[in-house]
Amino acid sequence: xxxxxxxxxxxxxxxxxxxxxxxxxxxxxxxxxxxxxxxxxxxxxxxxxxxxxxxxxxxxxxxxxxxxxxxxxxxxxxxxxxxxxxxxxxxxxxxxxxxxxxxxxxxxxxxxxxxxxxxxxxxxxxxxxxxxxxxxxxxxxxxxxxxxxxxxxxxxxxxxxxxxxxxxxxxxxxxxxxxxxxxxxxxxxxxxxxxxxxxxxxxxxxxxxxxxxxxxxxxxxxxx
Length: 224
Fold this sequence. Notes:
Blueprint: H1 2-12, E1 19-32, E2 35-44, E3 47-53, H2 55-58, E4 61-67, H3 77-83, E5 96-102, E6 113-114, E7 125-131, E8 136-138, H4 140-144, E9 182-184, E10 188-200, E11 205-209, E12 219-223
Antiparallel strand pairs: 1-2, 1-12, 2-11, 3-4, 3-6, 4-5, 7-10, 7-12, 8-9, 10-11
């Protein structure tokens, strides 16, 4: 088992696979060279390889990773069939499934585990992608940073209004894409150049510098 683990770690740390799935735990701070920087703790893996994407059938090589836990009763029968080779008897099905491309035919097999220490080491720079928090319906000032109307000269109810949105008779309509009030948040946000500060193999935790989008428990894709 140790030899298998070592060989898998050497394989994943190569150029083949550079991504792992994680969930956001909490934020904190760290002092590096006398400077205080914000940090985010992520629970990264263990993931499991659930599918190998064949280039002959799909036009590219890729891997599908599963992460988290989901009860069997909450898993559809087609998905159970898809995961039957990756999940052993008695184990729970993964909650999240995400696909990633690789440059060449992967040596990993369906059912192989992927740990955070197999891919990252302290000092690596990573790119994280997550879904930002939903804010609901928001006005122009909160959503786009508009200045708002005047606070004096008889103004009574236009302090937070967005103001003019068109040019009148010509063109006689509002241009598409105009910044206006609407639903805010729940966007896919990518943050680059975060640094791996520490890795806890026992708890499958990784500490990165800087903020990570989304709420606690939200899915985060971490890429080298």
